[in-house]
Predict the structure of Nucleoside phosphorylase domain-containing protein.
Amino acid sequence: MTTRMAVAHWLVLFVTVFMVSNARDANGTLPAATLKAIAKANGNGPYIGIVILNLYEVNLLLNSSSDSAVEIIDFTCNNYLILVMTGLSGVIHYGIAGNANPALHVGDVAIPQYWAHTGLWNWQIWARSTRKLGHLRFANYTINVTACASHDNLLNNIWYQPEEVFPVTGTPEGRQHQFWVPVGSAYFAMPKKLEGLKLKTCVNVTTCLNYTPSVSTVKRGVSAGVYLDNVAYRSFIYGKFNASPVDMESTSVALICYQQNTSFIAIRALSDLAGGGSTELNEADTFSYLAADNAVTVVVEFIKQLSSSML
């Protein structure tokens, strides 16, 4: 039996592509024929869902030389509807990300144990908000000021806030406050087996990294609706939260999976040192494809490691 046949025997992959720049609202009510088709597909499960941001990254997976069996379902709905209406028992999210960890490098693949949304703030005046998670004092980043007794300014401080989550396993209408969202514990145990995986070092024959990228598990990653391209804020995020990959979407997937009690993991390849400052000049433009390719390599191997007992 070939590798393809063996994998196909126990695993069918749903690749869900989210085209953010061309998003459309999903209808709350679906035709009976569609619901019937979904029910039939669920009966043939279980399934693992692969959540991908764009066609650029999904094409790398489809063009992979791996012998894994992959079927494509292009859902025009969001991650929540996918989890609610299909028989997914797990979600794998992958792609590229910026890097805030000075110990990691372009091309490395980082797999965090926790994700947080760092874009939910309260200004200092709102006393009812929590102040346990950390804050950013803008005055600490004042430069080129002389003969000034105080660097305080009207922006003052911001305080990071947790998200409100309503888990399906909880009390109806009972909310939880969640800042750090854990990935699936069984999923997170698997990347340790991938740390010796061989990753690409060259974009082409003339453009190569001067080191070999590696796979590593890290403690934390963060997401926000802001493209992080600032050295000072990158250093703050790493120093305050010990975050390694920084992106704009992983935590949104993590929160939905947490709410729906569905196993989740995010595999992010580092395309640049967020804000610049590394020795790889123009690194994001130069090495994004290499990083994305390395992410696909790890995802494919991760899927091969999955056992039917985890589905």
Remarks:
- Residues 283-305 form the longest helix (23 residues).
